[in-house]
Structure formats: structure tokens, C-alpha cells
Amino acid sequence: MQNDVIIAGFGGQGVMLIGKMLAYAGMNQGKEVSWLPSYGPEMRGGTSNCTVVISDKPVASPVIQSPRALLAMNLPSLDKFEPRVKPGGLILINSSLIKRDAVRTDVRVLKVPANDVANELDNPKGANMVALGAYVGATRAVDVAEMEALIRKTFAAKPKLIDRNIEAFHRGYAIGEAGVK
Amino acid sequence: MIQTVFQKPDSLASVITHYCPGCTHGVIHRMVGEVLDELGVRDRTVGVSPVGCSVLAYNYFETDFHEASHGRAPAVATGIKRARPDLIVFAYQGDGDLASIGMGEIIHCANRGEKITVIFVNNAIYGMTGGQMAPTTMPNQVATTCPMGRDVEQAGWPIRMAELVSALRTPAYVARASSHSPLHTVQAKAMIRRAFQYQVEGTCFSMVEVLSTCPTNWGLPPNEADRWLEEQMMPYYPLGVFKTPDGRDRAPKPLPADE
Amino acid sequence: MAKKLMKGAEAIGEAAIRAGCRLFFGYPITPQNEIPEYLSHRLPQVGGTFVQAESEVAASNMLYGAAGTGERVFTSSSSPGISLMQEAISYMAGSQLPVVIVNIMRAGPGLGGILPAQGDYLQSTKGGGHGDYRLLVLAPNSVQEAADLVIEAFDLADYYRNPVLVVGDGLIGQMMEPVEFKDDYAPVRPLPPKTWASTGHTGGEKPRSIINSLFLDPEVLEKHNQALQAKYAEMEKNEIRYEGYGLDGDYDVLIVAYGTVARVCQTAMEELEADGVRVAMIRPISLYPYPSQAVREAAEKASGVLVVELSAGQMIEDVRLALEGRRPIHFHGRTGGMLATPEEIVDKVRRIVEGRGGKS
Prior knowledge:
The complex is a heterotrimer of chains A (181), B (259) and C (360).
Chain A: E1 2-9, H1 15-28, E2 32-37, E3 48-55, E4 69-72, H2 75-81, E5 90-94, E6 108-112, H3 114-120, H4 127-139, H5 144-154, H6 159-179
Chain B: H1 25-39, E1 45-49, E2 64-67, H2 73-83, E3 88-94, H3 95-101, H4 103-112, E4 117-122, H5 152-155, H6 161-166, E5 172-178, H7 182-200, E6 205-211, H8 215-218, H9 222-233, E7 240-243
Parallel strand pairs in B: 1-2, 1-3, 3-4, 4-6, 5-6
Antiparallel strand pairs in B: 5-7
Helix pairs in contact in B: 1-7, 3-4
Chain C: E1 4-7, H1 8-18, E2 23-26, H2 34-45, E3 49-52, H3 56-67, E4 73-77, H4 79-84, H5 86-94, E5 100-105, H6 121-125, E6 136-138, H7 143-160, E7 164-169, H8 170-174, E8 176-179, E9 210-211, H9 218-238, E10 242-245, E11 253-256, H10 260-274, E12 279-284, E13 286-288, H11 292-300, E14 304-309, H12 316-323, E15 329-333, H13 342-353
Helix pairs in contact in C: 1-2, 1-7, 3-5, 10-13, 11-12
């Protein structure tokens, strides 16, 4: 069993961070993981991105040409990576910023208004947590308890952010969970 | 009863050197050897020999040695000293080695303030390779790669290393001496001793530039070579102490007011 | 110690410290800057020394000087910087100094690019600098293996009194994977005392130590070279490392790949096997000495061999030497920082099976 995802967005949207958190959570629950930052021609075109693989056995290629999932936080990311998603795979679209539908019809598409939800929670920087929650909710790639523990650890230096980000994660998780039912 | 009044320093090996007659490398080796003996540091000294005439210096000193690649002796010495700060480390380099191919290494070694000692032998020519132009070759001086004499329009002026290194802000001891006469060697030995003393005390980087003759490649008998050094080199390469570790930064003079 | 998610570059730096190395000399170059950056804050914490040299030329010569004292020393760089170090590497091989060098390879030639490549295979394994010498060359395929091999590289360097080069690509340096360091580090084999180190000559007790590669007498130099060659022969006997994938079963195509590329090939293999294409792989871990015999034996079962590299074809020369024409050899290479993808490899293997793979 393997989950892999390309998480992409503008620099500053926190896509590298949620990728690392995903990898950490996977590792903490005993899975094999890899996290690979934008490298190669990927760096061009207005997106910063990372590839995360979470697997039951040692990760073969850390480079994923056709990911099982794409988490697109902005339009250039969707434009760039949509064609590469594996047939039958999953595309999460940050519908707060991306005003188009997916072109692909052979994949599952889930719209997540990550920024709107974050704003609602008065946590505008927490859009990435909403998106992360949606991905985990839709894929169950890692355990919720593990993710919560990791959010506590990640924001240990800013205790005020812990509960707000856990809240954002859960709002996203609910959207993800509902979306695949 | 016979009393020994003069003998080879313990820090020099009992071997015959390959240096040409009239060359002052032997004199400079001896001064370094005497200083190592006097300071009692021979058993914790590691020398670094260059590529150039003194490439085989490791055979002539009774100390541990590293043979460096061309110009890199200050980097090699840095490595030794950083690995083992308790060792006394000196680099022995010629003008092609230090002032041409190794310019980057000597400047940065001095600028980092590595607590090592550099003995820089300047004889204004490449010796080992057969008399080519050096960065310190004098204007109009003939060498095998400037057969019409050094053309400063093409090759620039000879580089004054003691002045150059002493311009760095990092505290250091930088001096220039000569080795062509007994009187000058007394001064040179005092400078070399001071340079090593600073290292023993862990004070600073030290470099002594020693003017030296090369009768073979200058094409002069030794006595005339001594005279040539005094008349041609010394006016351009003044002797003296250029920098001491307690010396201040040389602040620029204010710009002259508009006239 | 518990597993920690670490960037490859940081794991490499930490591995050097775990191996007891306290001296790093280096110069910044992308994509390996995280190694010196990590060590610049970690080494002082453990009483070590970090020196940023003025150039790779100087850094490698500092390495030469420091290694001559018998201390464990380390540098890292990337392709253009490694080219500048070739002078000192030749001197260190000639002077028989134990040093560990990491090359996070980037695309060349020249300034090239900063993206992953394997274009330094020939430089690493066939010389690089002047003269008859060899480096022990190890190529990890994961962050954990990079850390393990760097630690072992220090032992191997000490054991053979020889520079050891660990080559990775930009992926190894940049990606994060779980790493586990053992709490108690012990050498994997008894290491000889460093009686050759130059740490001061104490009169009659210890003979004078001269760290040197200059032998003007041709007879003496030839003897020195013969001793070096005997040492390399011993390495060839003892230090061959590789990993096999599916070599026990039956297969039509044998893939030969090293480093992270081998992992991309693994993914391709999974896809091929699901489709009933029989394929196996051998992954050289030691690039010198090269696992020639293992490659030859593994190729016997296959009707064709596919070499995959992030180069225009460098390791393929060692595969050719190993197979001596026994099997057709096909090649898939990407250069310039482009990565080989599982899809490309799947496609190439299919074409080989269908008899239209094109020979190398």
C-alpha cells in the first residue's frame, strides 16, 4: 500500500511544511516515507512543490512522475500537474484561489475552499492546514492522532497556533472525508 | 681540550643539499634550524615544503614534513595546524610558489590569521624549472621567458608580498630580510625567531620574506649576485618589519579638500 | 536512537560527526551547501573545527595537511568543485592519506546546471586527477544508506590509507527520509594504528614522518606504484558491494543502475512485473571496485541488459567490460538535470522484450 502526493502552490503558502508534516506523521506511525522538494524543471512556472511518498514497504522511487494524488494550492500548480495525475487518482483543488474545474474526467476531484475556511476560523495562514486535513481525510494516508501530535510539536514554539491549526486541520479533514463518500 | 664552538643545528639533517653553489637557501635553512633548536620546538614541528627549488626541504630538516603541491603550502599548513594546534607548523616557499600560483592560498591563510609561520624566499626567478620569469622578477631583468628583460607594460611590476600581506587587517607579523651578507643574516635570523616566537605564543600568523640570490639562473658569480641583490632588489624590496600583531589598522588619509 | 526525518545533506554531515570526524574544510557550491552549513554549527558543538576555505583548491589541500596528522577529515562539494580538488586528491592518493570526500553530483560539463546527474562516474572511478591511482567509490541510494556509507567510509579510508569518495546526486542531498544512527559507533573492523602520521618527531623514538608523493628515483617510484596497485587489488578482493533485486527468479531483462536512479528503476520493475514482464536489477554500491563478476553472472539469465544512468553513458563502459560481449547491452540515459522516470524505463524494457530496444 502506497500513498504518494505532489503538494504544490505559491512560495509562502506553506506547501513544503505540510509535505514534511505528512512525511513525519507517516514515519512516526512506522511507515516508510520520503519527502522530495522542488527539484529540476519543476522549480519553474510559479510553483513550489514537494513530493511525499508514504508506503508500507521501502520507498522505491522518491521521484513520482504520475502521483496518486495532487494537492493544488494555486492555479499554476493545477495547470502544471493535473495532466500527470494517475488515472483513478485524486486531485484536491484549493477552490478559494482556483476558479476553474479540473479538465480530467478519469480522476476524483475534490474542491477544498482552504483559504475561505481558514479565514472563517480567523486563521488566514492556516489554509495549508485545511488542505492537509482534506488530503488526510480523503486518503487516510496517516492517522489523525499522529497528525494532531505533530501539529502540537511543529507549533510548540507558538502555543497560540496549536489549537487553531488543529481546528483548521479537522475542518479540512471533514471536507476530505465527506468528499470521498 | 677541544671545545665545539660551532655546529650544525639538531633541527637540520646531516645530509648534503642539492642547492647550487652560492645559493642562499642553505643559509636560510640553517637560520630556521637554529631557531627551532633555540625555541626547543623541534620535536613538535611539522614543516611544509613547496614545489620549487626547496621541494626537497623535507630531506634537510630533522622534523616531520609534508610535501605540498605547487602553491598550496599555506592551505596544507592550515590543515595541519587546525587539526593539531599544539604543533609548530611552518611553510617554506619560493616566489613562484607563493606569489604566483599560490597567491590565493597565502593571502587567505594570512587573512584568516592562521597561527603558522611562512618563510618566503624571494630570489626574483623560477629556479627549479630553469630561470623563467617570476612574479618578483625585476623590471628589465632577463629570464628565459622574458629574454628581452621583464617588460612591465606586459608583465606588470614585481609583486611586493610583504607589503601586500601587511595590508590585511588581521593581526600578523610581517617582515622582510635578506640573506646575502653575514650582517643581513643576523637581522634575518632575529626576524625568523620572532616569527616563530609569535607562533609558539599562539599570537598570530607570521611571514618573513627573505631576499635570496640565484647565481645559476641570474648568470652571475656568487659575489656579483650578492651585489646585484643589494643594488637591484633592495631598493625595490625594502627591508624591515611591515606589521606587528599589536599594530593598528592603516586607516586611509582623508580626501583632500577641493582646491 | 529513534528514527529522525533528515535531509540527505544533513544526514551526511551528522554521519561524519558520528564517525568521529572533527575537521571539515570546504567551499560553498550548490546543491550541497546544506552539508557545510550543517557542520558549521554542529562541529563547534562537539569541539570540532569548521573552515570555509577560499576555494576548493585550498579546501582540498587543507584536507591533505590535516589528514597527514592522522585525524579524521572530511569535505564535500559538487561536480565543478570536485574537479578543482583533483590535484589534491591525486596527492592524497599518492601520499596514502585517509580522507572522506562527498560529491553531490550535478549536471555538467562546465558550469552545467545545479540539478541531479551522474556525469562524474568516469572522473570518480577512472582517475580524475593525474597518475595511476584509485579511490574507493561508494554510491548510496537513500538518505539512510548515505549516512551509513559515510560512517563506514571513514573506516575504509583509515583501513586502506586511501581517499574514499561517496557520490550521490542532488536527490540524495535534497530529499528527506527517515534516518537512524546507532548510539554506539564502533569501527567495523580493527583499524591499524596511524604510525605514519606526522605529529612531531621525538628524536629516536619515532622515525621522521614525511607526508609525500614525490619520488624522483624512478625505481623507487615504480615500487611505490606497485604497492599502491597491490592495495587496490586488495580493495577489489574485499570491498565489492552491490544489491540484487529479483536475481533469484527468472527474468528476460537485467537492469543495471546505481544511486537514486536504481530506485526509479525499482518502481518501473513493480509496474513491469504486474504486467508479467520478467525483469531483475543489480545495483552497484561500490563503483570502484566494480561488481563486474556479479553483473556478469546476473546477466547470464537475461536475454538483454539495460543500463540506466543520469549521464550520456559512463557506467555502461564497466558493464561492457564485465559482459565482454556476452549479452546485448541497451542504454537509457538522461542528462542536464533531467530525471529518468519509471514510465520511460517501463517503455524501454518493453521495447527490449519486443526486440526493438536498440543496442548500445
